[in-house]
């Protein structure tokens, strides 16, 4: 079984100290597009020792000189000791597509790697492709295998995101609604803790009958996230990003999964 050799806990600036002290290379969520310079930073100077800079999309998108912005981002990688950049784009636009393509080219010249979500994977053919575990939740292994076949092992990266959704049946669209942590806790309490394990979805689930409506709730907890990581590792996926909030206090368990 191959190891997940490229592993980055996703962290906010205030979460960096415990991560760095434990030897992890974080994906630092401290950047967004915006301002006259094109890139805004919300973190104090830090040396990442091979981590990633996470850049989020501003809304609305600012007027940007793309080449100047790409040079600025590459310089930030050099200053912080990062190995690359992870882009979190909220929607599809031609401007972001052009930026992704040019950023990939610029970073490659400096020896840095670009990480993109699946809908932007075609913008730069050498990017790591983030496979969102939420979108693969109904049949996790099938979705991961499909991504491996499409992007290859050298590009496929698991983007592990906690999932909680309430499917109220009968449902006209079948999509359900996303649940906040407090809303999930309330439903579990009303279901009197009768929670089960779905092997296919690699997640917890329960049902709750209220009047004529039936709630079918599927959600992740820390144990299910670790199981999803184990399945990704068994399939040969070698890159992953995991929220630090889901790791804190369980570092030894997570460390056993990575090389």
Task: Tell me the Rg in angstroms.
Answer: 19 Å
Distance between the termini: 11 Å
CATH architecture of the largest domain: Alpha-Beta Barrel
**Estimated helix fraction:** 25-40%
Strand order of the largest sheet: 1-2-4-5-6-7-8-14
What would CATH call the homologous superfamily of the largest domain?
Answer: Glycosidases
Indicate the structural class. Answer: alpha/beta
Largest sheet: 8 strands, parallel, barrel
Instruction: Give, in order, the helices and strands.
Output: EHEEEHEHEEHEEEHEEEHEH
Strand content: 25-35%
Report the mean per-residue pLDDT as an integer: 89
> Which fold does the CATH topology of the largest domain refer to?
TIM Barrel
Query: How many β-strands, per DSSP?
Result: 14
Describe the structure.
The chain is an alpha/beta fold and 259 residues long. The protein folds into two domains: 6-162 and 222-255, Glycosidases (TIM Barrel); 164-219, Roll (Chitinase A, domain 3), CATH 3.10.50. It contains seven helices and 14 strands. It has helices at 16-21, 66-80, 94-109, 140-151, 181-190, 222-234, 251-255, and strands at 6-11, 27-33, 39-41, 52-56, 84-88, 113-117, 128-132, 156-159, 164-169, 177-178, 196-198, 203-210, 213-219, 239-243. Strands 1-2-4-5-6-7-8-14 form an eight-stranded parallel barrel. Strands 10-9-13-12-11 form a five-stranded antiparallel sheet. β4 (52-56), α2 (66-80) and β5 (84-88) form a beta-alpha-beta unit. α2 (66-80) packs across α3. The radius of gyration is 19 Å and the shape is globular. The protein starts with 5 loop residues before the first strand and ends with a helix. The mean pLDDT is 89.
């Amino acid at each position: 079984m191959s190891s997940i050799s490229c592993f980055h806990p996703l962290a906010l600036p205030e979460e960096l100290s415990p991560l760095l002290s434990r030897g992890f290379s974080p994906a630092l969520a401290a950047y967004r597009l915006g301002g006259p310079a094109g890139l805004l930073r919300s973190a104090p100077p830090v040396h990442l020792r091979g981590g990633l800079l996470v850049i989020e999309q501003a809304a609305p998108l600012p007027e940007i000189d793309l080449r100047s912005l790409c040079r600025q981002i590459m310089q930030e990688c050099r200053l912080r000791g990062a190995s690359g950049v992870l882009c979190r784009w909220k929607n599809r636009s031609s401007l972001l597509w052009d930026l992704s393509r040019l950023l990939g080219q610029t970073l490659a010249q400096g020896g840095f790697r670009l990480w993109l979500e699946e809908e932007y994977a075609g913008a730069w053919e050498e990017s790591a492709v983030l496979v969102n575990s939420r979108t693969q939740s109904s049949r996790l292994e099938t979705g991961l295998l499909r991504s491996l076949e499409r992007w290859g092992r050298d590009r496929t990266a698991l983007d592990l995101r906690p999932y909680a959704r309430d499917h109220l049946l009968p449902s006209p669209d079948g999509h359900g609604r996303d649940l906040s942590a407090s809303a999930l806790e309330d439903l579990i309490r009303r279901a009197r803790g009768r929670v089960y394990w779905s092997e296919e979805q690699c997640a917890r689930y329960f049902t709750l009958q209220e009047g004529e409506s039936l709630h079918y709730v599927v959600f992740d907890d820390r144990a299910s996230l670790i199981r999803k990581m184990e399945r990704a590792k068994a399939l040969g996926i070698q890159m992953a990003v995991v929220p630090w909030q889901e790791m804190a206090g369980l570092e030894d368990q997570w460390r056993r999964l990575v090389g």
